[in-house]
Amino acid sequence: MATRSACAGVLFKSSWALSPAIRAPTRHMTSTYCSPTITQSPQRGSISRPLQLHRSSLPPPLHRSYTTSRPLRSTSSSQEDFIFNPPHARPLSDITVVALEQVISMPLATRHLSDLGARVIKIERPGIGDFVRHHDKRVRGKLCSHFVWINRNKQSLALDIKDPKDMDILKKVVTEKADIFVQNLRPGDAAKMGLGYEDVKKLMNDAYPGEGRGDRLIYTSISGYGNQGPYTHKKAYDLLIQAEAGLLNITGTEEQMAKVGCSIADISAGMYAYSCIMAAVLQRQKTGKGCEIDVSMLESLVEWMNFPLYYAYEGQPRAKRAGASHAAIYPYGPFGTGGDGKVMLGVQNEREWKILATQVLQREDLTTNPKFQDTASRSENRDELEAIITGIFQAYSADEVTQLLEDAGIANAKVNDMQDVWNHPQLKARDRLREVDSEVGKIKAFLPPGLSADVEARMERIPKIGEDNESILRELGIKS
């Protein structure tokens, strides 16, 4: 990740205001959060005095409540529902992101921002939308698996940015609404449209003279190779970046390289964009200044490649490609069992190796064999050791081997398929599944990891192309 200027600034409220018909009541939080005060003017509803809500007076719910509705939550929500999921309690509830985004990397970053409460206005092509919508139709025979994953919570504004009229609308949206502007077009394309960093800063400062809105803008780009250097204008897709970053060189078997089964280069760039944006928001709180952030897919994935890079430091040979096993630690990978079963196990140190050899394999002689005396020698002689372990495991089923490993305290795992993951007992026990609305009905979705137990992630609708044009244009004072 490269940052072209120091990131700094104050967290400021977006300039957009909801129409009176849907404006949420003013909410004031006490220092303890668990006892919020909600106020609303008498003409806006039945509440004319502060309403005190105390979590302790409510029965414990089965899980923290969530919403799949697009409007902001209002005081008509149940007390229990509101206390566990107040929209203003999410960290980014005052932030608006305008996203000229497509495919995976930037949409993933903005989805994470939206999970934390940010309003994300996604710009799409009329009738076509983000072209990742058309990569497959695996969800209910209509929606793309990629799109469903990374586009919940967003508003879709369909604009033909080659049309001068629609470009004027886009610039108005950015100027009036954007606390953060993001794009993952080819380097230079945004600037050609008049939407480069300096262009947008000037548009905002000219529209609001004396307010410094443009100076507070956080502007983020993702591209394959970054905004400078000989590869700047080279086309880049996920698998190509896996190749350039050396990931293909270390993945698969010695006979055949293999790609990673998910879009890891896109994901790494999206996550670095997300973390850099969050850092920029914090810095803006301190200094009142925004910044430009330039994220390279290549640099993002190379950061994740540092173990194999140092393993091959100063011209040493790379680690051998070892399929589903670890390239340098052994035994650490899949092993066959009786009945064509398979278990994954991992031994990380000499203490664990001794336990595996003596308690599970019942072969104390292995601990004194010089071929297996340490991690490096076991890795060097992995074929011989694999034959020994697999030969012993053939007398047991996969479940029996798993139990032996569990009893001995040896790390192990089941090789799950996708249906196993949807139904994983640990994920169920931790209540990780919710539902989001879509044009094909409610769809299961996993909560993002790691949020505070006091605030539920936003889990709202996946938009159709241009679904929010009318409301956004009305908000801008433009007749559709």
Shape: elongated
Q: How far apart lie the N and C ends?
A: 40 Å
**What is the CATH class of the domain at 2-14 and 91-304 and 456-475?**
Alpha Beta
Query: Spans with pLDDT under 50 lasting ≥5 residues?
Result: 1-83
Approximately how much helix is present in the residues? 25-40%
The CATH topology of the domain at 2-14 and 91-304 and 456-475 corresponds to: Rossmann fold
Structural class: alpha/beta
Q: If you compute it from the alpha carbons, what radius of gyration comes out, rounded to the nearest whole angstrom?
A: 27 Å
- List the strand order in the largest sheet: 1-10-9-8-5-6-7
GO molecular function: CoA-transferase activity
Protein name: Alpha-methylacyl-CoA racemase
Biased composition (Polar residues): 32-46
Family: Belongs to the CoA-transferase III family.
Secondary structure layout plus pairing:
Elements lengths: L1 E2 L23 E2 L8 E2 L12 E2 L26 H6 L11 E5 L4 H11 L3 E6 L20 H6 L4 E4 L5 H14 L2 E4 L5 H4 L4 H11 L10 E6 L14 H7 L2 H4 L13 H24 L3 E6 H8 L1 H6 L20 E5 L5 E5 L3 H11 L14 H6 L1 H12 L4 H11 L2 E3 L4 H5 L2 H5 L3 E4 L6 E4 L22 H7 L5
Parallel strand pairs: 5-6, 5-8, 6-7, 8-9, 9-10
Antiparallel strand pairs: 1-10, 2-3, 3-4, 11-12, 12-13, 14-15
Helix pairs in contact: 2-9, 4-6, 9-10
Brief write-up:
With 480 residues, the chain is an alpha/beta fold. The chain is built from 18 helices and 15 strands.
Could you characterize what this model shows?
- Residues 64-78 have a biased composition (Low complexity).
- Keywords: Transferase.
- There is one protein chain.
- By secondary structure, the chain is α/β, with parallel strands linked by helices.
- Among the domains are: 2-14 and 91-304 and 456-475, Rossmann fold (3-Layer(aba) Sandwich); 332-415, formyl-coa transferase, domain 3.
- Helices cover 33% and strands 12% of the residues.
- The protein has helices at 79-84, 105-115, 145-150, 164-177, 189-192, 197-207, 238-244, 247-250, 264-287, 297-304, 306-311, 350-360, 375-380, 382-393, 398-408, 418-422, 425-429, 469-475; strands spanning 2-3, 27-28, 37-38, 51-52, 96-100, 119-124, 155-158, 180-183, 218-223, 291-296, 332-336, 342-346, 411-413, 433-436, 443-446.
- The chain has a 7-stranded mixed beta sheet, with helices on both faces.
- Helix 3 links the parallel strand 6 (119-124) and strand 7 (155-158).
- It is elongated and about 80 Å long.
- The two termini are 40 Å apart.
- The model is unreliable at 1-83 (pLDDT under 50).
